[in-house]
Amino acid sequence: MCLHIAEASCHPSDKDNGRIRNLLVQYGAIPCCTMVWLSTAQSAQSSVGTKLNMVYEVGELFELGIQLSYLLILLGLLGAGTFFVIRQVLVRRELDLSAKELQEQVRSGDASATEYFELGAVMLRRKFYPAAIKYLQQAIEKWDRDEQDLAQVYNALGVSYKRDNKLDKAIQQFEKAVELQPGYVIAWNNLGDAYELKKDLKLALKAFEEVLLFDPNNKVARPRVDDLRQRANMYKGVPIKSEKI
């Protein structure tokens, strides 16, 4: 009879299944143990379905957690980038204001050697190297304070020359700085860096070794000394450029 109706109606519902089983049990068509087995099978099927749903939900929560983590990382990077940009803008504005005030002081003719030095340092930070060199030279000419403090001006002038790709003049300023202040490790590091840029490995090594005499754990000089010693060993028997050794 099932052949003469729609296909969907050929499959009895769960309710019909229950009624059929009850009738079969009543009339002895199936034993009670078989009925128990069928009930157990239904319970097991229901339990498996519940576990699968739980696994699916846990998977969704895990995926959501990963997406939230990526979102938080992205927001963190955007926040850090924004902070960096704002900080750079504020620093630039502060430097511009400082330069303007100091330039007005210089134009008035009342600027001291210290103010020339400060203006030169501002120009150096703004990467206006010719202007920095000009004001730092004027600071040296007008200097009337302690000579050890003057070493800082020579060091700044050396940095300005080095960044303007004038290594010979930069080396002269760094040497003057360490002459005035022998324990000036920043100037020694700068001197070693300048010599290394000139490919003068011996004098570069000597400058960095000088740093370690005053500061044995200096984070700039320590790795440079090890590297230069290794490179110097590679050139044993080969003349290494040096004008002073």
From TrEMBL:
<dbReference type="InterPro" id="IPR011990">
    <property type="entry name" value="TPR-like_helical_dom_sf"/>
</dbReference>
<keyword id="KW-0812">Transmembrane</keyword>
<keyword id="KW-0472">Membrane</keyword>
<keyword id="KW-1133">Transmembrane helix</keyword>
<feature type="transmembrane region" description="Helical">
    <location>
        <begin position="64"/>
        <end position="86"/>
    </location>
</feature>
<keyword id="KW-0677">Repeat</keyword>
<feature type="repeat" description="TPR">
    <location>
        <begin position="185"/>
        <end position="218"/>
    </location>
</feature>
<keyword id="KW-0802">TPR repeat</keyword>
<dbReference type="GO" id="GO:0046813">
    <property type="term" value="P:receptor-mediated virion attachment to host cell"/>
</dbReference>
<protein>
    <submittedName>
        <fullName>Uncharacterized protein</fullName>
    </submittedName>
</protein>
<dbReference type="Pfam" id="PF00515">
    <property type="entry name" value="TPR_1"/>
</dbReference>
<dbReference type="Pfam" id="PF13424">
    <property type="entry name" value="TPR_12"/>
</dbReference>
<dbReference type="InterPro" id="IPR019734">
    <property type="entry name" value="TPR_rpt"/>
</dbReference>
<feature type="repeat" description="TPR">
    <location>
        <begin position="151"/>
        <end position="184"/>
    </location>
</feature>
<dbReference type="InterPro" id="IPR050498">
    <property type="entry name" value="Ycf3"/>
</dbReference>
<feature type="transmembrane region" description="Helical">
    <location>
        <begin position="23"/>
        <end position="44"/>
    </location>
</feature>
